[in-house]
Predict the structure.
Amino acid sequence: MSKAIKITVKKAPDRYDLGASKFFGSPTVPMEWDGGFDDDEIFFCQLRLSDIAGLDKENRLPHTGYLYIFLHTEDGKYRLGADVRYYEGEVKLAIDDFNSAVEGYEDFTEAYLMEFSEAYEDEDCTRLFGVPSDWSYENGPPNLLMQYDPLDNDMNFLDTLDGFLYFFFSNTENPLENVTLTEEYT
């Protein structure tokens, strides 16, 4: 069935494992990253890669450590840039209220925990891998890291975007090195 991993979310309770896979909330990062973020960056999500190891049968990502997606917001609310980071070890520093200082994103401080399951490669949902939903370009689709569907959840992030936010792997030796972000309207 699957060449993709579906991501469903639920609002985190008051007390939860800060190292869990999640959207928003407090990123839990390595100590050496403290102070290493731009003023316009917001925390979008963190994936504890051991959470998806059993579903990533093609080994597209490492199965240990953490993958993070931060977003640069300098071009305004709907012109975002991706800052994808991988860390191989354990993380110890939780940065509270990461998004609260960035204008327009102050409300995205609550955590939404991720749950993972198999998905069809073109399923209309928030997911890892597969092919972009409704891809209609002449050339084949680029390598999809994540498809975010703002209408697939109750997080209210980009909920006026009628379409998808795509994060594409780069075509370099290290595919996480230069992940690109594309907004696609349906």
User: Anything to note?
Assistant: Residues 4-185 form a domain with the Hypothetical protein YwqG fold fold (CATH 2.30.320.10). The mean pLDDT is 91. The chain has one domain: 4-185.
